[in-house]
Specification:
By secondary structure, the chain is an all-alpha fold. Helices cover about 70% and strands about 0% of the residues. This is Permease of the drug/metabolite transporter (DMT) superfamily.
Length: about 325
């Protein structure tokens, strides 16, 4: 893992930022691979706990190195963090449940629905202005999601009650909850530090996940325990790298590289889990990714236009 800089005003270094983004994506893919390899006999709530609790280890070490460990817990919005935690636990629980029941590339493709739904929810809850171009891109992207998910609900083959159908529904629900979580994060970043959001998120998720103990946690064997702890550590390191990458490049420059996870998912699904990607999954993924890239490109253009408008506007008297 590269040395993470202490927060400061950094000169733009797009290639370095892109490198950190791609590395964070690969580490998150490693986290997901660990969780999928654990097997479907470990409950989703238990997966959420290990993912959240052990993620605190690298995060706390990093904050201690920065000297920000004490101030990271200072907040005036405990309720907001708790809501973020509730939504995050639900999203992760549904997502991890789906991951154990769907081929990895299909799961990744369905998870790409979260950014599209974030646009919809931002318009509804935050009253953000969403123009026609983005609405069209969102609708096209959601059509791609339907293409990926539809084969799981083929009535002619009687698959409605299959594990794949349930997994697809859970994955879509997880994507929707992830989009709501992003809306809550947007509210929190207006007055909370990034470190505070990350620490409270991991803490609240760990505590809330413990509520699921009576519903059937299992005692993991040695291999499962290593995978669970590894998933948590990967989650924490990936979060740190993801946070660091935005210090060096604009969001519009970095965000498209999120989709490199699809390549990794296809490779890992084939070689690790013996899963072959289907034509409908590839087609739907390409549509969703294209819609996402268009939204990112459109946001970049609008950002440039707003900056130009500010430069030419006369100063207020």
């Amino acid at each position: 893992m590269p040395s993470l800089p202490k927060p400061s005003h950094q000169e733009p270094r797009p290639l370095y930022g892109i490198g950190l983004k791609v590395l964070s994506v690969m580490i998150f893919v490693g986290m997901q691979t660990c969780l999928k390899a654990v097997g479907d006999d470990v409950p989703a709530g238990q997966l959420v706990f290990f993912r959240s609790f052990f993620a605190l280890i690298p995060v706390v070490i990093y904050l201690w190195w920065l000297g920000d460990l004490r101030t990271a817990l200072a907040t005036d919005d405990v309720g907001g963090h708790f809501i973020r935690g509730i939504v995050g636990v639900t999203s992760m629980g549904l997502g991890f449940f789906a991951l154990s029941r769907l081929p990895y590339p299909e799961w990744i493709s369905l998870s790409y629905g979260a950014p599209l739904l974030t646009v919809v929810f931002a318009a509804i809850f935050l009253k953000e202005v969403v123009r026609a171009y983005r609405w069209v891109a969102v609708l096209v992207g959601l059509c791609g999601i339907v293409i990926v998910a539809a084969p799981n609900f083929s009535l002619s083959s009687g698959d409605m009650d299959s594990a794949h159908a349930v997994g697809a529904l859970a994955s879509l629900g997880g994507a929707a909850m992830a989009a709501i979580a992003m809306i809550q994060v947007r509210r929190l970043v207006a007055h909370e530090k990034t470190a505070t959001i990350v620490v409270y998120f991991s803490m609240t998720c760990s505590i809330i996940a413990l509520v699921t103990v009576p519903f059937g946690w299992v005692v993991p064997d040695g291999r499962q325990a290593m995978l669970l702890v590894g998933a948590g550590l990967c989650g924490g390191v990936g979060q740190l790298l993801l946070t660091a990458c935005y210090r060096y490049a604009d969001t519009s420059t970095i965000a498209p590289f999120e989709y490199t996870s699809m390549i990794a998912a296809v490779v890992i699904g084939y070689f690790v889990f013996n899963e072959e990607v289907t034509a409908t999954t590839l087609l739907g993924a390409c549509i969703v990714i294209s819609a996402g890239l268009f939204i990112i490109f459109r946001e970049h253009r609008l950002g440039l236009e707003r900056r130009r408008a500010r430069k030419v506007s006369p100063p207020s008297p």
